[in-house]
Design brief:
Two copies of one chain form a homodimer. The first copy, chain A, is 57% helix and 9% strand. Chain A is of the alpha+beta class and 675 residues long. In chain A, the strands form three sheets. Chain A has a four-stranded mixed beta sheet. Chain A has a four-stranded antiparallel beta sheet with strand order 2-3-7-6, with helices on one face. The N and C termini of chain A lie far apart (64 Å). At the A-B interface, helix 2, helix 6, helix 14, strand 9 and helix 15 of A face helix 2, helix 6, helix 14, strand 9 and helix 15 of B.
Chain lengths: 675, 675
Amino acid sequence: MGLYSLNVLVSNTMRYQRLYFQQFIPAVALQASQRQMLLQSNARETVLTSHQRSASFARDLAAGKLNMKWICPYPTLKTEDDLKELNQLSDTVAKFFSEKVDSTKMDREANFDPAVIEGLKDMGLFGTQIPEEYGGLGLSNVQYARVLEEVSTDGAITVMLAAHQAIGLKGILIAGNKEQKEKYLPRLATGEWIAAFCLTEPSSGSDAASIQTRATLSEDGKTWLLNGEKIWITNGGFADIMTVFAKTQVEEANGELKDKVTAFIVERTFGGVTSGNPEDKLGIRASNTCSVNFENTPVPAENVLGEVGGGFKIAMKILNSGRFSMGSSVAGQLKRMLATVTEHATTRTQFGRKLSEFGIIQDKIFDMTLKIYAAESMAYMTAGQMDILDENGDPPDCSIEAAMVKIYSSEAAWSCGSECLQILGGLGYMKDMPYERMLRDARILLIFEGTNEILRLYVALSMMQYAGAKLQQRLKLAKQGDGRERWTAIMDLFREYMRVESSTKFLPNRSFGLTAPHATKTWLHDSMVNSGKMIEANVDSFRKRIYLNLRKYGKKIQDEQLVLKTFADIAINIYAMSAVLGRCNKAKILSLRNCDHEKLIATAFIKKTYKENLVLLESLLDPYPFDCKEESKRVCDAIIEERRYLCSHPLEVVHRYQEHPKYLEHLERIKLLRE
Amino acid sequence: MGLYSLNVLVSNTMRYQRLYFQQFIPAVALQASQRQMLLQSNARETVLTSHQRSASFARDLAAGKLNMKWICPYPTLKTEDDLKELNQLSDTVAKFFSEKVDSTKMDREANFDPAVIEGLKDMGLFGTQIPEEYGGLGLSNVQYARVLEEVSTDGAITVMLAAHQAIGLKGILIAGNKEQKEKYLPRLATGEWIAAFCLTEPSSGSDAASIQTRATLSEDGKTWLLNGEKIWITNGGFADIMTVFAKTQVEEANGELKDKVTAFIVERTFGGVTSGNPEDKLGIRASNTCSVNFENTPVPAENVLGEVGGGFKIAMKILNSGRFSMGSSVAGQLKRMLATVTEHATTRTQFGRKLSEFGIIQDKIFDMTLKIYAAESMAYMTAGQMDILDENGDPPDCSIEAAMVKIYSSEAAWSCGSECLQILGGLGYMKDMPYERMLRDARILLIFEGTNEILRLYVALSMMQYAGAKLQQRLKLAKQGDGRERWTAIMDLFREYMRVESSTKFLPNRSFGLTAPHATKTWLHDSMVNSGKMIEANVDSFRKRIYLNLRKYGKKIQDEQLVLKTFADIAINIYAMSAVLGRCNKAKILSLRNCDHEKLIATAFIKKTYKENLVLLESLLDPYPFDCKEESKRVCDAIIEERRYLCSHPLEVVHRYQEHPKYLEHLERIKLLRE
């Protein structure tokens, strides 16, 4: 091919590319309401302003890359001593929960046993992640995750402690100044003061930016007056310190006044704070949930957390940073349940055989094992990454991955909880056994810390945005870069185009560095290579679908919630497979105890999830023959209009329809057609 | 083709057939334990002894046929007056439940309001299916199903009434003699006496034949002495009349004494009957569940139900006959929930939009609508068939279909219940709203009246047996039949063989009579033909998979529970699609109110279910590349052996593994390999 034809090719490619990609570049410019739904000022900024910052697994995935640094090496503790210390702590916690905590009783009475609360304080569990200089245990994310495995024995305690430290006091850790930290953290760390997080309001659940609570600054600028009602506040009945979010008037650069959210540290003793009656709930019944009302509560100006008007960002940072922990707490609980349920299955006999010999029961045990392994792998991979600070001492932004862990583990808790109850049969339905309580407790996980619906949209929209921004960058380079940059960008775009457009596979699947035969990159144990190839195949199809769907919908993809949901599901699956692979690979290479057992679990998990992804990926093709979008839209429109089920009852018409004139007419018509 | 070659072909075909089918013919000879699991002496007899008897939808399906009589015409009531009367009754019931029944209160207090019980009696709801001559309402199955839609407003009442009449007194209806009917039915019909069904024991749940309760006949042959403990007996605390199953010694034809189950009508006043404390349960809390103990309870000989030793068959007949009703009661409840949840979604605003405008919420509403439509369609199709008596006045055996309806609707109740709660978000988790109670109530549906696990095996094993028996019959005809019979049988077998073996589709898909272009058979509305073709394609693949798997496993298929489960899932899907098609076809042909809305629902349901079946059918291929049988077996064996989760903890080894000697060794090895 001569120089001329090459030039034509490039210029044609450029032209195609422009036509092809132009439509979806505006995808990065979301509507204001969508932006709020993203719940992630944080992540968005990273995408749009600093491409230098190391991208996360999910953002890399969106750009069609597999971040090998996340997969290998699978994170671990630094020293043997760290491990020993951590094991001691978690053993102490485990012992306390098995000996001192009567969850059945606390659930029945919908209250905590005061002795239990004292015990938690003694173990330092009110300050696990507060630095040691402020009297806390100063645990890293990985260590915290490990301790939570034991705490999760009791759902209500888990929620109470999370409300206290994962969200209640987290704002002070993240955005508090030195004075605020010194004033509040020591007594919060001991549990002398208990914290709560006050964001949700009657008209503002998932949509956190729409709160109505308001704070107005006194004329002397020294005190804010807080007014408004917060609902479903965990620990709301007794919390001493509350992180409260309220609308405040902020002067913009152009002098305009605008309502913006500000975060405040509010002490109950400030006055004007009243709590409602505790809510009666399906589960986590011992935990306290109630409304908190602020009526002219005076808050000193120095109790503003971060900047005035910067509260929304703080709220999202707090929520984003805490979600990862659901993975290990669910895995811990499910591991205990697996043990008791297997005990039951191996002792109960029906039809002359132990339950555990029934294939249909074994399948439940197997499925639960795979889910535990995946939740555990994802949780520690994410926690481990969060523990790696950059040169400025900042943790990376793992908000998308944390959301994935939260979605996956909450759904595992719910489905496995139900299956455990099912293995027990009628016995499981009775309050004599703990399974029904565990199932009730698990149900909240799908709702709080961001509903799984909103989080799925968050995961998918963040990834779409990043994919769009990356393409925009490449196009820009192809137009304006220097010689080499330009050439690379053009060839990249061309390859992208060819891959996406070609239905036949005349270009080989990419290896993404996971199974490539380069010694430096091949970190995979031989027995893991096949699994690696499955992940790569999924990643390859995933990126093709991103491009196809961005091209199809352009910026309107933000309104295609079912498409976004499917993307999120696939991405979560890929993240889970990668975590499982990374962990099992480590186990195999180091010949860890039971590593062959792990290999079976990892292989099966990846096989099943790969297959699941194939079905999901197929549904993103256009046209997809089983698409029901049109039917769904029309059916829902009608139901939403009338607000009820609209089909006529099956018994509504009594004629035997062979005798019905319309039917006879129909028959006649068919006869005529055939003549 | 000359006569000679035709003969060779036939004899070769015969030889292939023999080799091919011989292995799985013994499938009909199940082990004793498997036979019990079938829970269906009833259905099994039909298969093995009387092929003349009209087969049911499921048995036809097993033999590779689509029973058009079930699909068209979709059943309905006889006259306008019937409909009017039924609507009056169900309106009365609906009004009663909405005005007089405080389910929240009864749930909280775990007790029925006596005024409610009186109201139920006044409406005759204790005797809905008892013939009018005995003081009942004498409702047909279809009518009963309709009334249950309203009763299901309260889960606990539904269960109490079902325990009374669907199982408690059903034995007297089915197997009682004239004296027994006259003595008991009138007072049971008014609710003066309340009935219970006493089968389950501590060591005998799903395995009903293994009960330990024993009855011994007095020397004068006039009285049985009953001893044993029954558990989880609904209404057990106050029931006046109990159908009790106990082991009795029966003399076999050969003079041997054998333990066989006998059913007794036991009055509480006979003495020696004590009830345990009410169980504290997850849901249906107002209903009474407790143990019932019999200590030397004297039962007059005339209170034996049916024959001595015939009790197991009666128990199974009772259970099999009642299950269909779960379909309409679930559909009724879900219809009401759809209305309230849509009301919420159209009033709650988040992110500046009504919840009902979110695609992800609409999808939940749509999915729920499809499930309601399917459950309703299956329930009334089954009830309608059960109302068609044969020339002897006997109802057909619809036990497989009833089990399918039970499985489908219980799972719809559970998943939709959870989604409704999810749409409400945090609000749904609170006891202020009814959703958490409905979810708790729904959970029992997956367990009682036969766990869905056992019922899936029952469905699949029954179908496999029938398929095996049919083939045996054909092979016999091919060997011993007269000329024409023999020829037909041989050609049938040959066609079967060709279809199953040929991977390419050189034989066209069969029409099964649903979409065939014969005027007399084309009962389908034009707009339904595509849906019909999808069902036919599923049926065609289904029969091929039956033959392939029977060939592969032979009689050992009974131990392949996951294969059986998959067969059951596909069969349930086909049954649901057929019911939906039949119902919607009627609606379209008669231009019923909202029939176009129904058409959208039916089309989408069939498309989605067809696709789901494709995935399930693929997993029955051999080899199936994503099969995890081996992994599952080995992982479960290890877990069951140790009774706990076995993987080493992700943090267990602290070495950073790039520095680990084993890893370095691994690297070295790879280097060597490449050189």
